[in-house]
Hints:
By secondary structure, the protein is an alpha/beta fold. Helix content is 39%, strand content 13%.
Amino acid sequence: EEQQEVVLDFAYSAEAIDRLVKEPTLYQYFPMTKEAHGMAYVIHSNGLQKQAQRTELNADSEINARLLERLVARVKEQALEWMHSAPEKYRALFKVILASAFADVKLKVLCEQVQQPLIEFIRQYVPTMDDAFIPDSHVRIRRSAMAIPAAVLGKDIHWFHWTKDTDEATLSHARNSAKLNLQEATIASLLTGTMYAPELNQWFGALNGEEYAACLKELGLLKVDPAKHPELPLLRIKDQPCSLNDLVQEPSRIKELGAWYA
């Protein structure tokens, strides 16, 4: 039994992932056609014990349980190594597990030995934009075209590695309440939610040129009322940041505003 090889194979492309979730999950030379469980990976081993008809796994086999347990231990070991040596490979594995079924599959041995252990693993090692791998409770999805720094999210909170522009499908899985249930953050939610931080003021104040124009556009699309945030340096006077509070304190500066603000 210890000499039996057991392998987990997965694909990198979105098209292949979509196809694999519809295919059998378990193989012994050929697919076990009754073992399609919505996984975006396949498991192959010559040592798996099948039922007599060869189309499904022997669910009560202790050999199968040990083989699958050994497989997942090796997958976790490899994943931890990839985080340091080849992070893109781990991110690909993460996406594959995330795209797979999260509801307990009917095949108990697969659920207990493979599915749930892998789900719990990726929940502890979510990829972030700053090349870290951290628990899902410390991760938010950046729903903004702006490069908002993670510092505005508060202590120990990081941006999810993918955005709407890079991988909408992965975001959809990550938002799913039955999967990672990651929360999204927009400029509007940062202003009105519990995640608001002083660093947001600093970021607004440092915006200039195209970034400043893009920020104003996004605030407009989100219907953010600047009057409700008088402390924010959303205005520019001679390219210098200025807030409504600043104008209240120095009303003479109002005439320096360009016609755009009027």
